[in-house]
Amino acid sequence: MPWIQIKIRLRTGTEHDELVIEKASSLLTGQGAMSVTYTDAGDNPVYEPLPGETKLWSETIVTGLFDAEVKTGRIMDFVKSHLRPGTQVTSEILEDKDWVREWMDHFKPMKFGRRLWICPSWCKTPDPDAVNLMLDPGLAFGTGTHPTTAMCLEFLDGEPLEGKHVIDFGCGSGILAIAALLLGAKSALGLDIDPQAIKASGENAERNGVRDRLSLRLTGGEAPEENEKADVLVANILAGPLTELAPDIEKLVKKGGHLALSGILAKQADDVRAVYSQWFEMDEPLIREDWCRLTGIRK
Q1: Angle, alpha carbons 134-186-218 (nearest 5°)
Q2: At 104, phi and psi to the nearest 5?
Q3: Residue 59 has what pLDDT?
Q4: Which of 118, 238, 223, 269 lies closest to 170 in space, CA to CA?
Q5: Which of 65, 136, 237, 270 is most exposed by smallest CB count within 10 Å?
Q6: If you ran DSSP here, which 8-state letter would residue 15 be given?
Q7: Spans of the chain, pLDDT less than 50
Q8: Where are the domains of the chain?
Q9: What is the pLDDT of residues 193-251, one digit of tens each?
Q10: Which of 164, 239, 174 shows the shortest CA–CA distance to 204?
């Protein structure tokens, strides 16, 4: 059965406009919408707001999903009469599909570096002899599709990890820690501020047969003992937290240990690199799609 989408395009960008968005959502819900979603009309991502700053899209599309039998003309007239004059309200038919299958078809096995593959559980591994990490996209925390995650995976694939202890700072799904273990690391520690990330990392490690070598804990604990420090530390978060937490992160890496940082916009690379240069011999940034990866060796 097909569906009808009614879309309201709103000029937004100020905190006052949040009320307009809420009003548009209520109008659609009151007319029988089964769901309402908000999207950015300009497809401009919000990366990292400044402290105390609320970032809003300059134009927002509020979309209501309706049964195909509804009288769209009546609903659109009603919505327009309760919003600012000139507000753009449109409708379109949404063909019925197997949306689960559509979603699954979107994700394919991906290769990183020379030997590492990230594979959804429903896909056949392209190379059974390669290092295959089984990970389903979900409450994602990173599944390898973003350039920052990809650059960290490629870094790990290029590291001699045999016998090494790896720390994944901000582990999310556990993808980096699990990849390191599958690539030969002796042990790994995943740290995160979110209990859901710790849970997801544990489940993904169990699925990949490395749970016995992966320790997980919430950040904010005591400083590590010398034998707990990392031979290799990866942190794929954001420039702000990486800068703020640099004194804590550097304490986690043993002398001569390797560091990889990502989640950093290219324009932020020099500032973050300067901070970590206090403790690490930093390499030149690797830039990809406006994002960068920083690597270095502990002095």
Answers
A1: 70
A2: -65, -40
A3: 85
A4: 238
A5: 270
A6: T
A7: 46-53, 103, 139-142
A8: 3-96, 102-298
A9: 888 889 889 999 999 999 999 999 998 655 666 678 999 999 999 899 999 999 999 99
A10: 174
Q: What are φ and ψ of residue 245, in 5° steps?
A: -95, 5
The whole-angstrom separation of Cα 230 and Cα 251 is 9
292 DSSP β-pair partners: 264, 287
Question: What is the pLDDT, as a whole number, of residue 43?
Answer: 60
- DSSP for 72-123 reads HHHHHHHHHHTS-TT-EEEEEEE----HHHHHHHH---EEETTTEEEE-TTS
CATH class name, domain 3-96: alpha beta
- Please, what's the b/e burial string for 243-252 (b: 16 or more CB within 10 A of its CB; e: otherwise)? bebbeebbeb
CATH code matching the domain that covers 102-298, chosen among 3.30.930.10, 3.40.50.150, 3.50.30.30, 1.10.10.10: 3.40.50.150
Residue 222: DSSP 8-state: P
Query: Exposure string (b/e) for 275-286, b if CB count within 10 Å is 16 or more?
Result: bbeebbebeebb
